From TrEMBL:
Protein name: Permease
Keyword set, alphabetical order: Membrane, Transmembrane, Transmembrane helix
Signal peptide region: none
Transmembrane intervals: 29-48, 55-75, 81-99, 111-133, 139-156, 163-181, 187-204, 216-238
Length: 244
């Protein structure tokens, strides 16, 4: 599959996530579990590492548990359980590598890459926390629009040295406009959200352009969902630190 399809998958995932935050809590739990499963299945394929099924289970289960916990943990510590699931997932990755034994192919790449997958899968719980935070979903919408602009910029078939600053600047400009039109969020926090979210997403685009070989559907799905899902934690913490 073509690399641009990753951006399309990211846009679809983003639309589903943002729309889901406006529904009943159970909807976001289902979306969170599905997103974690997509990251779990696809991330090892994108990295092209061995033991894909086992690592997929570790990454997916860690993220799903983090999402469920974020939906039911009493306020205000919506993400209090997330570090525990990240730690458990990382430990599980090391256990998998120990079981594989010494001298196995791509052992270091598999360990480091899978730990990164656990982190991305678990951080997505921030979308659920952001939706629950004060019952106000304005920052979710601002972050979602910023992410959409960055993803659209990433679809341009221009060099990364052009697309990267374009995506960051565009996301940083759209965020305050969205804040003024759709919410009472002040300009500075909105700009921070836009720039941070845009920076993360265009960074993942660089990972795609550096990868050699064709991508299968699982790799496209995992790489399309992973960064979009993970930036939920960024919008939540910025909302909590700069606005609340």
């Amino acid at each position: 599959m073509k690399s641009w399809s990753i951006g399309v998958v990211g846009l679809v995932a983003l639309a589903v996530i943002v729309a889901g935050t406006y529904g009943p809590p159970a909807v976001m739990v289902v979306i969170g579990v599905l997103a974690a499963a997509a990251v779990g299945v696809g991330w090892p394929h994108f990295l092209a590492v061995p033991a894909k099924k086992t690592l997929a289970a570790v990454i997916g289960l860690s993220g799903a548990a983090s999402a469920v916990a974020a939906a039911f943990v009493p306020p205000p510590g919506f993400l209090d359980a997330t570090p525990a699931f990240i730690g458990a997932g990382v430990v599980a990755v090391f256990v998998v590598q120990l079981i594989r034994g010494t001298g196995q192919a791509q052992r270091l790449e598999s360990t480091l890459g899978s730990c990164a997958g656990v982190l991305l899968s678990c951080l997505g719980a921030g979308w659920i926390a952001g939706a629950r935070f004060n019952g106000i979903k304005e920052m979710v919408l601002v972050a979602g629009l910023s992410a959409a602009v960055a993803l659209l910029a990433g679809l341009l078939r221009w060099p990364d040295r052009v697309v990267a600053p374009l995506g960051i600047v565009a996301a940083g400009l759209v965020a305050p406009l969205a804040g003024l039109v759709f919410s009472d969020i002040s300009i500075v926090p909105a700009i921070v959200v836009g720039v941070v979210v845009g920076s993360v997403l265009v960074s993942f685009r660089r990972m795609v352009t550096l990868r050699l070989g064709r991508l299968n559907f699982a790799a496209v799905l995992g790489m399309g969902v992973a960064p979009v899902w993970a930036v939920g934690a960024l919008s939540y913490f910025i909302d909590k630190l700069l606005i609340y």
